[in-house]
């Protein structure tokens, strides 16, 4: 999948949707139900672009219930209504998991496998600008059909195990997910399929490919 470069600066996350509309960035579906015992499939889509210093992410979700118990970064946000971006930004096999619940609380980890992952320090998670349509106050599960969106501006400095200054022209492996481990209807959706027996998003061997386009000179 191609990731367009946008020549915009000082973007605020609440304005990201309008910017991506203007740039004609299409939504992609997160709709792979990989495990029969978890058949529930909320409506989930995302779009992605990049600038000279950041990755831009916009997720839209419609699901039967929502929860945002965690309001502090690096908490167990995957148990809430959660969207996720996993990526290998360099060629060394280290992948980052960037997980965000429906109020914009994030978790960031890095490592080569599921075991022994290193959480990003607070000063790194604080670099991620975020906006949520549901606000930023934690709440317990609300059982009702709910639409929500989150927008994230992820500076390259968030890839704290590397010194990444540009993704122009790079081809990286990545996957996008939607989960809610402790919701009344747990679910585990992915963008690229995961062909294993039990739910596990920490499988870089099933990542898809993102092609980060260089800036177009017109």
From TrEMBL:
Q: Highest lineage ranks of the organism?
A: Bacteria, Pseudomonadati, Bacteroidota, Bacteroidia, Bacteroidales
What is the scientific name of the source organism? Bacteroides pyogenes
Q: Which residues form the Carbohydrate-binding domain?
A: 16-212
Q: Which InterPro entries match?
A: Carb-bd_dom_fam9 (IPR010502)
For this entry, list what GO says about its biological process: carbohydrate catabolic process
Protein name, entry field: Carbohydrate-binding domain-containing protein
One function term, GO molecular function aspect: carbohydrate binding
Name the Pfam families on file: CBM9_2
């Amino acid at each position: 999948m191609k990731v367009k470069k946008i020549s915009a600066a000082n973007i605020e996350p609440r304005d990201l949707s309008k910017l991506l509309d203007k740039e004609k960035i299409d939504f992609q579906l997160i709709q792979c139900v990989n495990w029969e015992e978890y058949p529930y499939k909320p409506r989930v889509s995302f779009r992605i672009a990049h600038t000279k210093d950041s990755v831009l992410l916009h997720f839209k979700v419609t699901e039967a219930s929502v929860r945002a118990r965690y309001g502090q970064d690096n908490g167990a946000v995957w148990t809430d209504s959660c969207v996720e971006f996993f990526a290998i930004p360099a060629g060394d096999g280290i992948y980052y998991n960037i997980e965000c619940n429906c109020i914009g609380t994030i978790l960031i980890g890095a490592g080569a496998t599921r075991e022994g992952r290193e959480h990003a320090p607070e000063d790194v998670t604080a670099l991620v600008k975020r906006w949520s349509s549901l606000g930023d106050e934690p709440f317990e599960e609300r059982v009702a059909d709910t639409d929500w969106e989150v927008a994230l501006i992820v500076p390259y400095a968030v890839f704290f195990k590397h010194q990444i200054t540009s993704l122009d022209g790079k081809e990286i492996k990545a996957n996008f997910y939607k989960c809610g481990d402790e919701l009344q209807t747990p679910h585990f959706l992915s963008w690229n399929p995961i062909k294993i027996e039990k739910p596990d998003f920490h499988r870089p061997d099933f990542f898809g490919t993102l092609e980060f386009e260089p800036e177009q000179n017109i």
